[in-house]
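Practice record 12: protein with calcium ion.
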Amino acid sequence: MRPPRRLLALLGATALVAASLTASTVYVVSSPVPALALENGLARTPPMGFNNWNFTQCRPEFNETLVKGIADAFVRHGLRETDATATVSTSASAIGLSGSSFTLFDLWSKSRRTTTGAISASVPAHGVVMYRVSAGRPTAPPAGTSQLSNLTWTSATNGWGPVERDRSNGEQAAGDGRTLTIGGQTFTKGLGTHAASSITYFLGGRCSTVVADVGIDDEKTTGSAVFQIWRDGTKVADSGVRTGAQGLLHLTGNVSGGTTMRLVVTDGGDGINNDHADWANARVTCT
Ligand SMILES: [Ca+2]
Ligand SMILES: [Ca+2]
């Protein structure tokens, strides 16, 4: 898959934001709706959006004239609100891409989908949708059972340096981890992470099960973390809080039909210090 080249931004529920907002960004933005306190792993408000406070901090120049000017600019670029869900579309050429197949990565939910031809988003009334759009399609894992450390993830975040393949997290440098070890048991394959971490794989609806032996690596036994497996926006496995003293836990997630799968590590509620979290012998089975 080619690396992401464009961040597509669509503003407003009914109108397409022209690429003139930025050369490479499209947003779907309008006034917020009350947040729903859903325990679905998503932030209760979008992590990105139009945030005047960060820019102005209510300095004197942030006055009615400026606010009206911003609103007028939105309207000039075709941004308006409606009270109904609307489909907002653009073309590849409008955002500087070529080809006919594209991958849309939802920057809020972290879900991923593919499309051909027109690029569009279904935008709730007064809602927000943000996609990173890249040309081409990601590749699903091959048929059979694959070690996740042998596959290419589509995105990864990690709380202390990068995610390590087939070794523990170690410190901040890449490749400085040790043999994956949980409760004295060593592993030659797996992923070494550190809370807070999230690793996303594209499955393309072709995979059924993800399994791993999870736990705090022996290199930092005082850590604590929670291991979760997500199929698109649904959590399908949760380890509960694991400490170094508990050793490993075998975790299984049903990812049948999922377009994407995420391995998530949280801090266990007590901060990220020493949270060296291993996904040992982590495998996915696909057809
Ligand atoms: Ca490292
Ligand atoms: Ca912790």
